[in-house]
Amino acid sequence: MANLVTIVGRPNVGKSTLFNRLVEGRHAIVSDEAGTTRDRHYGKVQWNGVEFSVVDTGGWIVGSDDVFEEEIRKQVSITVEESDVILFLVDIQNGLTDLDMAVANILRRVKNRPILLVCNKTDESNMSYGAAEFYKLGLGDPYCISAVNGSGTGDLLDKILELFPQKEDDTPAMEELPRIAVVGRPNVGKSSIINAFIGEDRHIVTDIAGTTRDAILTRYNKFGHDFYLVDTAGIRKKAKVTEDIEFYSVMRSIRAIENSDVCILMLDATRGIESQDMNIFSLIQRNKKGLVVCVNKWDLVENKDSNSLKKMEEAIRARFAPFTDFPMIFTSALTKQRILKAIEAAQAVYEARQRHINTGRLNEFFLPLIENYPPPATKGKYIKIKYVTQLQGPSTPSFVFFANLPQYVKDPYKRFLENKLREQFDFCGTPVQIFIRQK
After folding, report:
1. How far is CA 198 from CA 212, 263, 311, in A?
2. Which of 71, 111, 242, 290 has its CA 20 to 30 A from that of 88?
């Protein structure tokens, strides 16, 4: 299971700066996704061979200098529930404030979650003496860092790795079955569709629950399908969600998406696509998971005509562009209309993720195509692609094209190759990676 680290603290202590420092250099994670405005607040960090996710709460909670304690309590309570390690960031230059004390009062009551007190803006070594006053917070020894120049962040990362929950060797082995997560913003029908999937089922054989930090997996064994359903917000426990809804759903979506193979993204047909849907779509894309879009509550759409479905489908694909090669199902969880099609589509996407194309078939298809439509010449140099093969290891289908001048093959041509690959070999719903290497 993926580990999750969250950065909390009052506004203007450097949460986003620390976040950017931690995810630095991971271009695949920080790349721009169309239509998303909050990408910088979620990313992956790799340190000493361990990869984990990091969340900066600053962008999802509306924060200013006069944030009152109730708002902080909401933010921290969500964070505590979902995180493996919490970084409580304070500003050593401004010293201890009432707002810091308010956050610390909440954090001291937290059980079973490690909290690291991090003193930021220690830009010069002699400033670390100012950290002594933060012992008043009662959260242990402060870690002095400078998010701007990176000093102290290596020791902090070492400590974070130490605090991650250890995986026990005696955990029961699980069958290699597809993991399908139903994700989406609140009130879109996630719970209803999962109840429709499993409500009357007599063949559910296992509920695998780890700690509260892990996803709960329910085995679905029905109608010839056999997979694990990854639990998401609101399925198991109907907590009174008075917290910031958007932040809450993003935190839960991160956990569910990372622990799945395929995501069924639920949209509300009566409301169309909102920014929160785009955020969750972006998370699925950056984690390179399979995608099925499920437009729920289609039975509630008024004044439908013969073109309504086609128009809505075109509008959704336009918002999710450039990735448009995914199945879209129009459902009603209430009437159970077409919900089995959603499961069938998810199963097909999972099979596409596992698909391996023989090297001979790849070259037989691509080499004549490339000869007819070669990459455009750059600086008078002609690019020749001689060979293509699929990589064995990655969970996402990945293809390597060997060329004499790989550095001159630009993104538009890579997209051309990907589109032809999808047309010929059916990778509907699954991301595909294209690499150009020196032959």
Report:
1. 22, 17, 32
2. 242
pLDDT at 157 over 90: yes
pTM above 0.90, yes or no: no
Report the SS3 class of residue 245.
helix
Query: Are 182 and 249 a contacting pair, CB within 8 Å?
Result: no
Report helix, strand or coil for 150: coil
Distance separating alpha carbons of residues 12 and 284, to the nearest angstrom: 30
Q: What is the pLDDT of residues 227-240, one digit of tens each?
A: 888 766 443 333 44
For CA atoms 206, 210, 211, 213, the dihedral sign is: negative
Per-residue pLDDT, 236: 38
Provide the 8-state DSSP code for 334: T
User: Would the pLDDT of 210 be above 70?
Assistant: no
CB–CB of 290/262 below 8 Å? yes
Residue 235: per-residue pLDDT: 39
Q: How far apart are CA 121 and CA 345, in angstroms?
A: 50
Distance from C-alpha of 259 to C-alpha of 198, rounded to nearest angstrom: 20
Q: List CB contacts of 212: < 8 A, sequence separation 6 or more.
A: 81
- How many Å apart are CA 46 and CA 157, to the nearest integer? 10
Determine if the peptide bond prior to 322 is cis (ω within 30°): yes
**Residue 104: pLDDT band with limits 50, 70, 90:** confident
Q: Which two tokens stand for residue 169?
A: 């060797």
Half-sphere exposure of 437 (CA within 13 A, CB side): 14
Helix (H, G, I), strand (E, B) or coil at 303: coil
Question: For 125-155, what is each residue's pLDDT tens digit?
Answer: 777 788 889 999 989 999 999 998 889 999 9
Give dist(CA 404, CA 387) in Å, integer: 11
Q: What is the mean pLDDT of the chain?
A: 80
Spatial distance between the Cα atoms of 348 and 127, rounded to a whole number of angstroms = 58
The answer to whether 152 touches 92, Cβ cutoff 8 Å, is: no
Q: Tell me: pLDDT of 31 over 60.
A: no
pLDDT top residue among 427 and 172: 427
Read off the amino acid at residue 201: D
What is the spatial distance between Cα 430 and Cα 416, in angstroms, rounded to a whole number? 17
Question: Are 180 and 327 contacting, i.e. CB atoms less than 8 angstroms apart?
Answer: no
CB burial of residue 400 (10 Å; 0-12, 13-18, 19+): middle
Average pLDDT rounded to a whole number, residues 354-381: 93
8 Å CB contact between 353 and 261 = yes
